[in-house]
Amino acid sequence: MDVLKRLKNLSRNGRLALLGAVVLILLLAPVAAFAVDEMRYNGEVARNVTAGDVELGGLGHDDALEALRGYEKALGDAPLVYRIADSTFEISASELGIDIDEEAVLTSAMEKRRGEGFLTRFSDWFGSFDEQIAITIPVSYEPDLLDDLLDEWEQEAINDPAFEGGLIVSGGRVLPEYPKPGEGIDRAAAQNATEQAIQDIDRPSLTLPTLDLTPTLTAADIDTAAARASRIIDSPITLRANDPEIEVEFTASTLAQALVTEVRATEPARVDLSFSRGPISRVLTPLQDQIEQPPRDAEFLIDDEDNVTLRESRRETLLDVDLVVARLFEVADRGGSTGTLPFAFGEEAAFTTEMAEAMGEISRVSQFTTEHSCCEPRVTNIQTMAATVDGAIVPPGEVFDLNAHVGERTRDKGYVPAPQIFEGEIVDAVGGGVSQFATTLFNAMFFGCYEDVEHKAHSRYFSRYPEGREATVSWGGPELIFRNDTDALLIIKTAFTSRSITVKMFGNTGGRECTSGLGDRYAYRDPPVEFEGDDSIPPGTEVQESAGGRGWSIDFFRYIVHDDGTEETQSWTHRYLPTPTIVLKHPCDLEDAPSPCLIAVPDVIGMKQGKATSTLETWSFVVVKETVSVDDEAQDGRVISQSPAAGLGHARGATVTIQIGEFTEEVGDPGADFL
After folding, report:
1. Does the pLDDT of residue 493 top 90, yes or no?
2. Phi-psi region of 431 (alpha: psi -120 to 50; beta: other; left: phi over 0)
């Protein structure tokens, strides 16, 4: 009542405004509901859309697709019943290979009630509450499968079936079966009835009419087919392939087992011949590992004359029995005895023929040889390293690191102990002496115009190497690293004799040419004197073992002429250390000699007194002489014993006692003869 009173109290304009608001709300409510529904059904099938017996409304893509697949399975599981004469045959529709295009049906469903423009979509939405949209699902099947079944059923259900003729293969021979007239199923009617029946899950039984049939094939047609079949299986066939290299023989017996004959009652009728997979597969399966090969990269092959040829890449080869069956039948049908064994191809090679050809012509761009004496242990190491590097490939833009490529030098790899420089000293080490190979490789790189990334020359000069333009390596450093700064790959080849090592580089440097230059020696440094202990040198005495040599600095250059005529100069500076003068002295005379420093007492036994005394004094000992009688005249005046004994350590200036033999001739009794 209060509301009515309030309405009565409203002015006329107020009542009109209120009425307008109510009407507006009533109009906007459906629009709001439509907007909510559009958001809700975005990506889903619209309301009240069906396909066949499947309700798709409100389902998203995956759920709708699953529902359609379930419907296809139900169609396939549903039986088909055929009545022919007095016989009944039942199969599941899946035996005919029925199929529906779920994606096409779903696309059509998604488009329903999705018109252009607001008013069209709103109208479709409004009608979706009481109007259902039904989409027809086209169901297909494979007529050939039905034909095969009809062939069987004719023989069972019809007393005098028509026969189109055929061929029998027995004992390696082809025998004709000639056609004859009779009764047969009306194939066109059977196909039409089946096509209609499979559209629904609930299906009536199908009564198939029969006809009096006259074969379309003649006895002459069968004879022609028999002659062709006999020729196909008459003799063995060999299929060959060159890459990978393989040869497979299929015997006449195998061909006979594989031969399939099928009469097609088409227009025109024909006898189809083919090979089945089974017998062919049994021949091929044991050879699968030979046939199936991984992809092979394109490769540049280099002969003894440095000629370069490109071996093409090959994709991964795979056994494909169907391809072989088709090729085998092709060869057999034309009366051949040999053919090409086909493969399927898989993964592509990492480095293809096209990639190789894009690099341009590959040829020798540099070569360098150094010589050495024969048969030294280091020669074994040089040749072992050369063999490891031979054939190395450096892709464009990549670096070649000699140590990384060769690895640590060990006896297991064939390396032997040989001299090498370690911390300025020449010592024996497993794998020593390989710096000659490093120098040879460096020079091949140098004249090949490739980019020097890191190298180090010997700390001391060796005349067998080009001055400045040389390199040394050792496991753990120094390193020899260079970059292939071209657009073509770089191939390193090595060769050696008992007296030389050669490195060749093959690539395409774009026409660059390199020559070398050498500056004058400068910044000479005199050799230092180095003292070394030698127990054979008497104390206080110095013996120069080697005179040493001066060190110096040297600049060497690489002059690069590019294909366009521009020139470039690169320079390196190397400082050779002087070779020290080596002076030998007794260890007790060295600065780091221990205190007290013991000197080995020389062996003077048997020496004359004077020589023994001189010898001991030379070795810084004080001599004490004692005389002792001897019976042997040969010991007269010679040292009979010494103390300390020879070889024992004794302090500088200490005494050494020697006993000198003294021989006294005995004088006999003059009257003894008269006794």
Report:
1. yes
2. left
Are 184 and 157 within 8 A, CB to CB?
no
Query: What is the residue-averaged pLDDT of the chain?
Result: 88
Whole-Å CA distances, 329 to 83, 239, 260: 40, 11, 11
SS3 readout for 522-588: EEEECCCEEEEECCCCCCCCEEEEECCECEEEEEEEEEEECCCCCEEEEEEEEEECCECEEEEECHH
The amino acid that residue 3 corresponds to is V
Distance between CA 2 and CA 7 in Å, rounded? 9
Question: Cβ contacts of residue 602 below 8 Å, gap of 6+?
Answer: 615, 616, 619, 646
Fold for 595-663, please state it: Trypsin Inhibitor V; Chain A (3.30.10)
Distance from C-alpha of 279 to C-alpha of 304, rounded to nearest angstrom: 48
Q: Are 210 and 184 in contact (CB under 8 A)?
A: yes
| Domains of the chain, residue spans | 2-38, 359-583, 595-663
Lookup: tokens for 366: 């540099």
The candidate with the shortest Cα–Cα distance to 180, out of 163, 166, 168, 159, is 163
The pLDDT value recorded for residue 465 is 92
Write the pLDDT tens digit of every residue in 430-487: 888 899 999 999 999 999 999 999 999 998 898 889 999 999 999 988 999 999 999 9
Q: What pLDDT digit, counting tens, does each position of 518-541 carry?
A: 999 999 999 999 999 998 999 989
Q: Do 99 and 68 touch, CB atoms closer than 8 A?
A: no
Q: Taking residues 280-295, what's their average pLDDT? A: 96
Check: CB of residue 235 under 8 Å from CB of residue 337.
Answer: yes
Q: What is the mean pLDDT of residues 381-410?
A: 95
For residue 20, the surrounding DSSP H or E stretch is helix 12-40
* Under 8 Å between Cβ of 166 and 180: no
With cut-offs at 50, 70 and 90, classify the pLDDT of residue 39: low
pLDDT, one tens digit per residue, over 77-100 is: 999 999 999 999 999 999 999 999
- Model pTM score: 0.61
The stretches of 263-363 forming alpha helices (DSSP H) are 277-284, 288-291, 321-333, 353-357
Residue 447 sits at the vertex; the CA angle it makes with 445 and 448, to the nearest 5 degrees, is 60
The two tokens of residue 592 are 């780091």
What Cα–Cα distance (Å) separates residue 286 from each residue in 249, 282, 337?
Answer: 13, 8, 22
Coil, strand or helix at 313: coil
Asked if 636 contacts 627 with a C-beta cutoff of 8 angstroms, the reply is no
